[in-house]
Write a structure and sequence with these properties.
The protein is of the alpha/beta class. It has 8 helices and 14 strands. The termini are far apart.
Length: 279
């Protein structure tokens, strides 16, 4: 599969990098690399819509000259993965977790370690939401639980759930190649309790879950939240992430209307995780 690489040069990188990641994710971009003042974003050739990208850039520029330059190039299949790997850096979640690639040579680490083969899947830990939801997971009890990882990407959350004691994990990913990447990452981490499923919300099934993790984006979460609520056991927990803190009220309202109770909000650099319980 070929990929497009979009390179944006941003004027106020610290403020606009995360904003552009959110906007680009909504139109199908899957993976991002920050090289201040440049932001690189990647999308598969089949998913790329030039009109959508141009409209987004035009709308952003109407609010001010935030983008100095932008460049788009098609990366041949044999090249894009090497490009991505060369930019993959280890991720540390405090002293609790380290997310690394197989080619990293690092000093010993006292916390948990997850090895991720980076194949453009969203969820390497580099984005604030993945980092934040991993951090939140350490505060919860996964022992013996049945867990759903919705929009699993690389499977990093599913793998962490198993390491934290989950008994069974269903990792659903809509991209076939990404679902295959989950299987590779399971093997790298000796994970045996994860069922990697290629599909969308229809793959959730009827058997309930004790804990649901959904790190996607606001629009997808709003469209699927009723399915998550229905799939939770009584006293089951729902963690939502993939959106700005300013979007949290809309998601809290939607979840509350379905009978879920908002327990906590966690934030990191304007990104949020919401925790709900089903009474």
């Amino acid at each position: 599969m070929n990929y497009y690489e979009l390179t944006l040069t941003l004027q106020n990188f610290e403020e606009w990098s995360d904003i552009m990641v959110a906007y680009l994710a909504e139109i199908g971009f899957e993976s991002f690399v920050e090289e201040a003042p440049m932001l690189k974003a990647y999308i598969s050739e089949k998913d790329y819509q030039g009109a959508e990208l141009q409209q987004l850039i035009n709308e952003v520029q109407k609010t001010g000259a935030h983008i100095d330059t932008y460049d788009l190039q098609l990366l041949a299949q044999q090249n894009w993965n090497a490009t991505w790997e060369s930019q993959f850096e280890p991720v540390y979640v405090a002293e609790q977790l380290r997310i690394v690639a197989p080619f990293h040579e690092l000093a010993p680490f006292s916390g948990m370690e997850i090895v991720i083969l980076p194949k453009m899947s969203f969820g390497t830990g580099h984005h604030q939401t993945t980092h934040l939801i991993c951090q939140t997971m350490f505060e919860l009890d996964f022992k013996g639980k049945r867990v759903l990882d919705m929009g699993a990407g690389t499977g990093v959350l599913a793998i962490l759930a198993e390491k934290l004691g989950a008994q069974e994990i269903v990792a659903i990913e809509i991209e076939e190649w990404s679902a295959e990447n989950i299987l590779e990452n399971m093997a790298l981490n000796g994970a045996s309790k994860i069922n990697a499923v290629h599909g969308g919300a229809e793959a959730i099934g009827e058997k309930p879950f004790d804990l649901i993790l959904a790190n996607i984006n606001k629009n997808v979460l709003l469209s699927q939240i009723a399915l998550y609520a229905a799939a939770l056991t009584p006293n089951g927990l729902l963690l939502l992430s993939g959106f700005f803190t300013t979007d949290a009220p809309d998601l809290i309202a939607a979840a509350t209307a379905l009978g879920l109770q908002h327990q906590q909000t966690f934030d990191r650099e304007n990104w949020a995780v919401l925790q709900f319980i089903k009474p």
